[in-house]
Amino acid sequence: MNWQTLATQLFPGGHDIVERDNFLSGSAQVDGQTVAVIGTTEHVPIGIEIALAQAQAILETVQAHPGRPILILVDTQGQRLRHRDEMLGINSYMAHLGKCVDLARRRGHAVIGLVYDQALSGGFITSGLIASACYALPQATIRVMGLPAMARITKVPEERLTELARDNPVFAPGPENYLRMGGLHGIWADDLAARLVEALASCAMEDGRMALGLERGGRLLAQPVAEAVRTGGHVRPA
Amino acid sequence: MSSYLELTARQRIPAIFDPGSFEELLPPSARVVSPHLAQLDAPVSFDDGVVVGRGLLDGRVVFGAAQEGGFMGGAVGEVHGAKLVGMLRRAIDERAHAVLLLLESGGVRLHEANAGLIAVSEVMRAMLDARAADIPVVALVGGANGCFGGMGISARCANTVIMSEEGRLAMSGPEVIETANGVEEFDSRDRALVWRTTGGKHRYLLGDCQVLVPDDTAAFRAAAVQAIADIRAGSASLTLEGLLDEQAMLARRLLDTAGLADPVDVWRQLGVPDPGAVPMLEADAFMQLAAPYRAGGQR
Fold first, then answer.
1. Do A159 and A215 have their domain in common?
2. A227 and A125 in a common domain
3. Are residues A214 and A198 in the same domain?
4. Does residue B187 form part of some domain?
5. Full-model pTM
6. Average pLDDT for B23-45
7. Can you tell me the distance from the alpha carbon of A178 to that of A171, in angstroms, rounded to the nearest whole number?
8. A217 and A151 in one domain?
9. Is the Cβ pair A83, B197 closer than 8 Å?
10. B40 found inside a domain
11. Are residues B176 and A207, on separate chains, in Cβ contact within 8 Å?
12. What are phi and psi of A25, to 5 degrees?
């Protein structure tokens, strides 16, 4: 879905989002309150400039509009794979973005992520995945890495990975798998405006994704393992 | 000198923490292994590649973790990530003096793709939860496998990053970039270029690593003790002022390096005299030379 269509459906009350070099920013009216919107479009790779622009927009929101909810619209093919980005420390730019989101959360901003097209690893981990809650549209794809690079690193043949990506929950890119594992809080199939209002109202501070993954049956060990380490108990597989 | 680089995770723990003080949580005897590796016929490990627990550092209760680069490159799977998160949460429960992360990881364990990605994001949030509870989080990067991918991001969520020259800190590995954009973009076999681009000296000069030490366990330990004391003299939490400073530093870096393609050019731009000689310097000599030219690092 293109971002204009998405924005029209999400914000019947109107918005002033603008796109510049695939970076989205602006504000929108949601159920009578103003929401800050940042994001990316056209599956743009997240390089150091766009990570910094997103961080800047979040810091400006924290400074100028304390408590204003923040919606992050995710569409990226992942981190930019260039020598220059690595040389200048793209991990630091990504971490900075993540820390800005975290600061906003702790200062009382509800932060919601929405994967409306593609999400991939590095572009996702410090946007949707560090928001207080992340949602996706049903057509969204979420993955960790392109299969050729994955095959080269894991030494698992690409054909085998392609086969696994078809229906294995750990490898398949559909949002349902992320939902079951707790990585997504929900999938918005219709009436996006109403879903957004609900999401903002139910946004929690704590990271409850392991418990969600256990409850939904998609990630059975994470929660018991973390609890066993935390309390000194034993891991009881569900 | 006792090399940090050459040790396993299990050897590093007693070399960094006070001798005999470390109590491992969920040790290998608990036999908790990855639920995802069998389908790829990949071997499992009874600690899933990470040691977590609680020990003493210079007499104070410090929680810690050490990733084992020898098992799947230290990469984070479902169990590995959950152990880190559980340890960080317990450090908060017990009001630990600090958390030390001995990082050596390729990032998300690709064999557990989706589950690993979520796990790394949970580790990041748990680290920031510890900092928000005013518990210093210090990352040590000096293993042979470096610190990449999501763990390269996580390292920079710590208050302080301590590296050796041999340590590497980045996001996408050179092989991934070469696979995506060709050998002209990044020649992963050019070891000197790889080290210039991702190694400790470059990260120190840029301001992304706060302390550079020789490849020596005693040096890492001493730097960790000092870093924790320095952090505790202020606050471990993220602040708006701190992040505005970091925003300014990262923006300045983009402007200052426009058009530069090699780390040596970046060092020259920073004012480092004879930047071509930087790779050959010992850590102590390098620190003396570099300190005045280093870009301001944020904690």
1. no
2. no
3. no
4. no
5. 0.97
6. 94
7. 10
8. no
9. yes
10. yes
11. no
12. -155, 155
CATH number at residue A94: 3.90.226.10
Q: Are residues A120 and A141 in the same domain?
A: yes
Give pLDDT tens digits along chain A (238 positions).
899 999 999 999 999 999 999 999 999 999 999 999 999 999 999 999 999 999 999 999 999 999 999 999 999 999 999 999 999 999 999 999 999 999 999 999 999 999 999 999 888 999 999 999 999 999 999 988 878 878 888 888 999 988 888 878 888 888 999 999 999 999 999 999 999 999 999 999 999 999 999 999 999 999 999 999 999 987 865 4
Tell me B144's DSSP state.
Answer: T
Cα-trace Rg, chain A: 18
Given a cut of 50, whether residue B297 has pLDDT beyond it is no
Q: Which domain holds residue A115?
A: 3-204
> What CATH number did the domain enclosing B104 receive?
3.90.226.10
- pLDDT number for residue B41: 86
Model pLDDT, residue A153: 81
Domain count, chain B: 1
| Number of domains making up chain A | 2
A217 and A122, same structural domain? no
**Of B113, B247, B266, which has the smallest distance from its Cβ to A56's Cβ?**
B247
Give the best residue of B87, B92, B121, B183 to mutate against chain A (max A CB count within 10 A).
B121
> What pLDDT is recorded for position A164?
87
The partner residue sitting opposite A235, judged by closest CB among B32, B85, B253, is B32
Question: Residue B27: which domain range?
Answer: 9-169+209-237
State whether residue A223 sits within 8 Å of chain B by CB. Answer: yes
ipTM computed for the complex: 0.97
Burial (CB count <10 Å: 0-12, 13-18, 19+), residue B187 = middle
Alpha-carbon separation of residue A16 from A7, A28, A36 (angstroms): 10, 6, 10
User: Can you list the alpha helix ranges (DSSP code H) found in A44-109?
Assistant: 48-64, 83-87, 90-106
Q: Is A62 an 8 Å CB contact of chain B?
A: yes
- Does A140 share its domain with A218? no
- How close is the nearest chain A Cα to the Cα of B293, in Å? 16
Question: Hey, is the C-beta of A101 within 8 angstroms of any chain B C-beta?
Answer: no
Q: Dump the DSSP string for A132-179.
A: SEEEE-TT-EEESS-HHHHHHHH---HHHHHHHHHH-TTT---HHHHH
User: What SS3 state is found at B263?
Assistant: helix
- pLDDT value of residue B299: 36
Same domain, A212 and A200: no
Whether B222 is covered by a domain: the verdict is: yes
**How many C-alpha atoms does B206 have within 13 Å on its Cβ side?**
33
